[in-house]
Each structure stands twice: as structure tokens, then as C-alpha cells.
Amino acid sequence: MNFGILGAGSWGIAFGNLLRDNSQNVLIWGRRKEYVNEVNQTKRTPYLKNIRVNVPLTHDLNEFLNFTDILVIAVPVQFIREVFEKIKQFEHKIFLILNLSKGIEIKTQKRVSEIVSEFFNVPYSVLSGPSHAEEVASKIPTAVTLAGEHYEFLQKIISNDYFRVYISNDVVGVEIAGALKNVMAIAAGILDGLGGWDNSKAALMTRALYEMIKFGQYFGAKKETFFGLAGVGDLMVTCNSKHSRNRKLGELIVKEKDLSKILTNSKMVAEGMYTVKAVVDFSKKVGIEMPISNEVYEILYNGKDPKLSMLELMNRPLKNEWYI
Ligand SMILES: NC(=O)C1=CN([C@@H]2O[C@H](COP(=O)(O)OP(=O)(O)OC[C@H]3O[C@@H](n4cnc5c(N)ncnc54)[C@H](OP(=O)(O)O)[C@@H]3O)[C@@H](O)[C@H]2O)C=CC1
Ligand SMILES: O=C(CO)COP(=O)(O)O
Question: Chief localization class (predicted)?
């Protein structure tokens, strides 16, 4: 089987190297020709310092699709639709779609599987969990969750001695957990920017998990999924890691205050800043209480003072229900 990976950022390349280590055929599509040429020549990418790129890249979508049996999605969620428009006529070539991207589309409030089903009638799986590209590319032991079709086949082909794949039958839960933990990691970064307090971070992560579960259950996700690698596992790593783009964005917004200035200086994508828009819009529409997401939105997009957000979160009416 030939794996064609859409997206030549850190995760697309780290995952490509992983598949190569497992003796799979891999080709990665990148949107910028100069970047693709540079990586092919130097075997290096600015997205992953000190890592050798062991897979070829192409900018040519025809070459990419003629090669591909298993289409792997590793582009930021807001751009998936744009890329699919260009490749939808190749549906007959694709045996299976494996999604690695974590987010919710702003304009439709759709998960990746829902975007995929608008374009392709092809089996779909999603792989998610605590898996920073920098560590996977360095072959650091990592465990993740896989949900969807052909899971046994994928589990075997992707697992190795540094990458262990567990399975789940809850595609919705895995997708929602992966998308929402990015929003929560921005909140964790905001706390780090304010003072890096341990008590506050533990409280935030615990309440974040509760908020993720509430949102997920609205769509029929299973609570247990959030207690596994795709949920609490990814929440822990993203809220605490020095590698996390989302956590770093939270830290930066406290220091620099101006989101547009931060974005001008950064090439990497923090999916949570987009997902939070979809989550806040949707949760307000249907009446799900999402206090942490709301404050992240206010801080990023309405310039709210993070200290005021924290104070308001602490001073909300006390809960009179039993909580975990
Ligand atoms: N990095 C990680 O550790 C992990 C990331 N993920 C998920 O993987 C997905 C990809 O993230 P990641 O690899 O980290 O990205 P990076 O932040 O490393 O790089 C951004 C990537 O997005 C591409 N990109 C930006 N704009 C567009 C566009 N308009 N159309 C197509 N591609 C575009 C960039 O291309 P260009 O170079 O041309 O600008 C680059 O390849 C995200 O959903 C992320 O949440 C999941 C697990 C781990
Ligand atoms: O999903 C990730 C790790 O599991 C990557 O998170 P960041 O995008 O915040 O770096």
C-alpha cells in the first residue's frame, strides 16, 4: 500500500518518517514548491530541527494522487476543504482516508470526518492522542488512539517499538477530544503566561476535561473516550509541553496581547485558535455551558484581560451538582 500524506508540516513529515521506519511507501504533498524542493535536496525541514526527512515530497498533486492508495490528512483543518476541492475527482483511486488533523471547521462547525464525507465515499479512520511530532520524529516512545474503518490493518501497519496504537470505536469522541484539547492548551498557556501556578493548572485541566466531555456528549461521543489517550492523554501533553503550539500561543497572548502580531511572527499552526470560534458559536447556539472556551475566545479575539477572565471564572456562581 502507498501512503500519500497531504501536508508537509511537522506532523506530516514525522508521520511519514514513522511509516518509512515501518517499511511503507510514502509520498508527502506540500503546497509550496520552493519548500518542497528545498526539503528534497537538504533532507531537512525548518519545522523539525535536527531531524532527517526520510521521505520524498512533491508539489505535484497529479503525481501525488497517482501514487496514493491511503490518503493521510495532515493539513490544518481550516484548509482541508480547499485541498479536497482540488483532489475530489481522484476518489476512485483512494482506498482509505486516515486523518491526523485536530480541529473543527469554523464556517460549517464540522469535524474532519464530516468534511471528508462531503467529498468522498471512502472508508475513514482518525488517529489522535499525545504525539508531538518533535518526539515521534526522535523515536521517543508514544501511544495513540485509532478509531474508524480498517482499524486492525492500520493498527498493525502503524505500530512499532516506539509508536503504539490502541483502538477505539468512537470516531466522534476521538475527533472532538483532539479538537477541544487544543483550545484548553491555549488556556493552559495563558495560565503559564500569568504565573505558571500548579494549583491553577491542575484545576484548569480537570475542568477542561469536563467541558470537553460535555461538548462531546452532545454529539454522542462516549465519556470513556475522554479518559483515554485521545482525551486526557493529549490534554496532559498539550497543556504541559514545551513543544505545544497551542500552549505557546496562550503564553504569548498574555505577553504580547495582540493576536495579529503573534501570527505575523509564527509559521506554525495553533489549531485551537480556530476551533475555539466554532466551539463558542456552536455551544452558544445549542446552550452548552463552555466557560473556559468562552474566556479563551474573549482573550484572543476581544482583547480581554486574562487576569479578569481568571477572576470571573473563579467567581461564577458555585455549583450545586455532584461533579467529578
Ligand atoms: N505537530 C504536531 O505535533 C501534531 C500536529 N497535529 C495536527 O496536524 C495538523 C498539521 O499540523 P502540523 O503538521 O503541526 O503543522 P505545522 O504547524 O508544523 O505546519 C503548518 C503546516 O500547515 C500548512 N499550511 C498552512 N496553510 C495551508 C494552506 N492554506 N493549505 C495547505 N497547507 C497549509 C503549512 O504549509 P507551508 O509550510 O507551505 O506553510 C505547513 O505544512 C494540525 O491539525 C495539528 O493539530 C496532530 C498531532 C501532532
Ligand atoms: O496534538 C498535538 C500533540 O498531541 C500537538 O499539539 P500542538 O499543535 O499544540 O503542538
Answer: cytoplasm
From atom 8 of ligand 2, which residue's Cα is the shortest distance away? 245
Nearest ligand by distance to the CA of 243: 2
Q: Ligand 2 center to residue 238 CA distance, Å?
A: 6
Rounded CA gap, 93 and 296, in Å? 41
Q: What ipTM was reported for this prediction?
A: 0.98
* CB distance 45 to ligand 1 below 6 Å: no
Strand partners, 71: 4, 97
Number of C-beta neighbours around residue 165 at 10 A: 20
Residues of the chain with CATH 1.10.1040.10: 172-314
CA distance 279 to 214: 12
Pocket test for ligand 1, best of 6, 11, 275 (most atoms within 8 A of CB): 11
- Which CATH superfamily includes the segment(s) 2-169? NAD(P)-binding Rossmann-like Domain (3.40.50.720)
pLDDT digits (tens, 9 = 90+) for 303-312: 999 999 999 9
pLDDT of residue 324: 58
Q: What digits encode the pLDDT tens for the residues 54-73?
A: 999 999 999 999 999 999 99
**Residue 302: exposure state from Cβ atoms within 10 A (0-12, 13-18, ≥19):** exposed
Residue 81, ligand 1, Cβ within 6 A: no
Q: Where in the chain is the domain with CATH 3.40.50.720?
A: 2-169
